[in-house]
Design goal:
Helix content is about 25%, strand content about 15%. It is α/β, with parallel strands linked by helices and about 120 residues long. The protein is globular, with a radius of gyration of 16 Å. Bound molecules: flavin-adenine dinucleotide.
Length: about 120
């Protein structure tokens, strides 16, 4: 996506003062598509910023200037829950709330988290 009305909402996050307009957005669905985007951007010297839900409060998902926003929101599946070993495998954009719900299904909890719509991978990173 490259039209102004499409890219403008991805030029800021939960940080009130920071704002930039990316040149383009991509929303991969698979790991292979992520790798393809990164390889293409790398060979073309295009800057990438990874974005989860865009709720961060320190401008981490705001592009520096132009460049490509790699939006991960379509990669939001919980892949496997192993109740016995208390482990869970999920794609990058699963929210902390969803992780908590999946854990609750097998009698465990992620624990309280205020920013529930934020992605777990971003919180971890
Ligand atoms: C109401 C509210 C309450 C909040 N409460 C808390 C809180 O209690 N504790 C707390 O820690 N934070 C809190 N936050 C901040 C925010 O929700 C968290 O920082 C959350 O982890 C951001 O997730 P996100 O998916 O929105 O990340 P984004 O804002 O999209 O990205 C944040 C950073 O992570 C990077 N990133 C995103 N995805 C990945 C990935 N897959 N791999 C590597 N890097 C990645 C981005 O490039 C960026 O630098 C709160 C925010 C709000 C609005």
């Amino acid at each position: 996506m490259t039209r102004p009305e499409e890219v403008i909402p991805y030029g800021f996050d939960g940080t009130a003062v920071l704002k930039q307009r990316p040149d383009a957005l991509v929303f991969p669905r698979t790991v292979e598509q992520v790798a393809e985007c990164v390889a293409l951007a790398s060979t073309s010297a295009v800057r990438i910023v990874v974005r989860g839900s865009g709720t961060g409060l320190s401008g981490g998902s705001v592009p520096l200037s132009g460049g490509l926003v790699l939006g991960l929101t379509r990669m939001d599946a919980v892949l496997a829950v192993d109740a016995r070993n208390l482990t869970l495998r999920a794609q990058a954009a699963v929210t902390t709330q969803r992780i908590d719900e999946a854990a609750a299904d097998c009698g465990s909890r992620l624990g309280p988290c205020v920013g529930q719509v934020g992605t777990f991978s971003s919180a971890s990173a």
